Amino acid sequence: MIEPNITLITLDYPPEFGGVARYLGSLVKETDGVMSVVVPDGHSVDGPGRVETRTMFGRVWPRWWPLVAICRGEKERNRTILVSHVFPVGTAALISKCLGGPDYSVIVHGLDVRLARGTWKRWLLKHICKNAKAVIANSESTKNDLLAIVPGVTVTVLTPAVDGAPYPSREDARRMLGIGPDEKVVLTVARLVPRKGVDMSIRAMARIQAKQDVRYVVIGEGSDRERLEQVATKCRTKVTWIRNVSDNEKNTWFGSADVFLLPVREDETDVEGFGIVYLEAAKAGIPSVAGKAGGAGEAVVHERTGLLVNPNHLDDITGDVERLLSDEDLRKTLGQQAKERVERDFRWHDRWAILSSLLGIKL
């Protein structure tokens, strides 16, 4: 059995559903035992790799101070540290290093940069990045946002990828789900929070369903769910809500869909760093309608693997979904090109090769 020499310290990890968790879980799985994982008390340890829980937060300010001891302890195990979440894990790694702890590298997500508001947090972000062995961003968009605050720092972009078993064929997926061969299916898979734009998707689908018979499926859970259900009721949108799905069931829905719809938007505190779900849709050979926000424009290439829309313009969202539903040739062309691109350019093996080189790990 390989002895780990990298410790990933993170607040988000599978079986959690979010994009950050899936990004990290897939990366750890690709390391084949080189990387172990530390998550907070109470978190499931059922994710990929060797996962252990540690007490990361105490009762007195700063509550995250136990993280400093966790980081310092990794030096005794002769391990380097990889941290996800600049605040507070990156902060603890910086303090640990100043107190004689091990080197650390940091993965920066879109939310990390958005949280760096105010003079103090910007100063802290600069020092966390400048003292890191390596700084990794999950998209070019995140890299550019980071460089606007920390100019001159070297940032390596490590976008998400998609590997694993192929999805069921369209015919098999539809048979398993009881969907007719000619029925149109529009799919949304997302954490249900306001910036994902699912409310705009629901409003667009209400207009479309008034003209044609289209099934709209939303897979996900989150704090915005109740409000979204109210929006659907008010708009009279017929929505199939699915929560707590297995990966196999989710993949079956991807295999059955005609269009993937997720018009993400930005808000003051968060942004779409990249959008793994767009790659999952591409793997299934279906085009996406995505919002022009954050890194979504890197996951979806306009007029080549899908369509990018203004996420605040309902007419644009409605029109692009209708365009794909009505033009079978365009839908199939964009879907095939999306599948070819994701199979060629988005492999976790390639991501791990880059990261291991950055961290000085010999494979």
Question: How does this model look, in words?
Answer:
- The structure is a single chain.
- With 363 residues, the protein is of the alpha/beta class.
- It folds into two domains: 6-161 and 347-359, Glycogen Phosphorylase B (Rossmann fold), CATH 3.40.50; 170-345, Rossmann fold (3-Layer(aba) Sandwich).
- The chain is 44% helix and 16% strand.
- Helix 12 links the parallel strand 12 (288-291) and strand 13 (306-309).
- Helix 1 (19-31) packs across helix 15, helix 2 (66-76) crosses helix 3 and helix 11 packs across helix 14 (328-345).
- The protein is globular and about 65 Å long.
Please count the beta strands (DSSP E, at least 2 residues each): 13
Class from secondary-structure proportions: alpha/beta
Please identify, by name, the CATH architecture of the largest domain.
3-Layer(aba) Sandwich
Total helical segments? 15
Q: Could you spell the SSE succession in H and E letters?
A: EHEEHEHEHHEHEHEHEHEHEHEHEHHH
Sequence of strands across the biggest β-sheet: 3-2-1-4-5-6-7
Oligomer: single chain
Low-confidence stretches: none
Q: Which bin fits the share of residues in helices?
A: 40-55%
Percent of residues in beta strands: 15-25%
CATH evolutionary superfamily of the largest domain: Glycogen Phosphorylase B
CATH topology of the largest domain: Rossmann fold
CATH class wording of the largest domain: Alpha Beta
What general form does the structure show? globular
Radius of gyration: 21 Å
